[in-house]
Amino acid sequence: MTRAQALRAGMTLAEITHRVRSGRWQRLFAGVYATFTGPVSREVWRWAAVLRAGEGAVLSHRSAAEEVGLCRASQGPLHVTVPAARRVTAPGGVVVHRCRHVRERRHPSRQPPQTRIEETILDLAVGVPPEEAMGWIAAACGARLTTADRLRRALRRRGFVPGRPVLTSLLDDAAEGCASVLEWRYLREVERAHSLPAPARQWRRPRSGGYWYDDLYYPGERLRIELDGQAAHPAETRWRDYRRDNAAVQSGDTVLRYSTGDIFDDPCRVAGQVADVLQRGGWPEPAQPCGPGCGLLPADPGRDWIVEGASLPVL
């Protein structure tokens, strides 16, 4: 609650002062109070930052992302955006951004006041490395908070945007079904760089009581590829992943599983392995080297296939 809100509700300055001095209220910022005792959560601090920033202020950037669960609450600064015409002195622990279009970018119903999810993602994706930008885009689309098309429309509504071509390209990749940075790196460094065919992404297949979701699937060659990023495949879900892989093999499919290290450190080897299995399934073309120093391994149809660095279940 702000001091102005308390006064409008009928309290006096003396009553406010007494409640703060007695410990019943806690002063968070100048003129902003927590009307309870005990620990102050990050959620309360976000509300307090908006109240302290005043009229027209909204949560934005990482603070808005925290509010919708796109990232964990941190101990870093709180971010708010205010109308460009206002001058707000940022209190300690708060970063104040100014924007001419803050009213249009505000979410129509969420509380505390905050930017729309599309605007939040674009705020976070502008001016950062492509991998970090893709992380925000994939997180929002993967959580079904927005879509690549909605993000593209929001981008078009903005004027000058540094790195617009890069952002547009990342949104195109997200529209193809990349639901994580790891899947995006596979698309760029493995699939496109080595002229592999495009798989179906986020392939859904029925199972008892629901569906299995495969990261990548080549239906014609009966090849499923799982990319084990820590966010999408934490240790506690390992046995579920094993059951899914076993069911796929039982149905006649081949399963290859790769870790973050495989895709980031040796995409050429991964491309060679995928191409080898695809050729066994009937794909007629070999993988192509990505450049002069490509470490693409030649296919050897006579050898037994082992996915290095992976721990595949045995039926």
Describe this protein's structure.
The protein has 315 residues and is an alpha/beta fold. It folds into 3 domains: 3-119, no CATH class; 120-175, no CATH class; 189-280, Endonuclease, Chain A, CATH 3.40.960. 40% of the residues lie in helices and 16% in strands. It has 13 helices and 9 strands. The protein has helices spanning 3-8, 13-21, 42-53, 61-67, 102-105, 117-125, 130-142, 148-157, 164-175, 181-192, 238-250, 260-265, 267-280, and strands spanning 26-29, 32-34, 58-59, 78-83, 94-99, 200-207, 210-218, 223-228, 254-259. Strands 6-7-8-9 form a 4-stranded mixed sheet, with helices on both faces. Strands 3-4-5 form a 3-stranded mixed sheet. Helix 4 packs across helix 6. The chain starts with a helix and ends in a 35-residue tail after the last helix.
Rough outline: elongated
Largest sheet geometry: 4 strands, mixed
Could you tell me the number of beta strands?
A: 9
The low-pLDDT segments are: 299-315
Q: Mean of the pLDDT scores? A: 88
- H-E string: HHEEHEHEEHHHHHHEEEHEHH
User: What is the distance, rounded to the nearest whole angstrom, between the alpha carbons of the first and last residues?
Assistant: 61 Å
Question: What structural keywords apply?
Answer:
single chain; 315 residues; alpha/beta; Endonuclease, Chain A; 3 domains; four-stranded mixed beta sheet; three-stranded mixed beta sheet; 13 helices; disordered C terminus
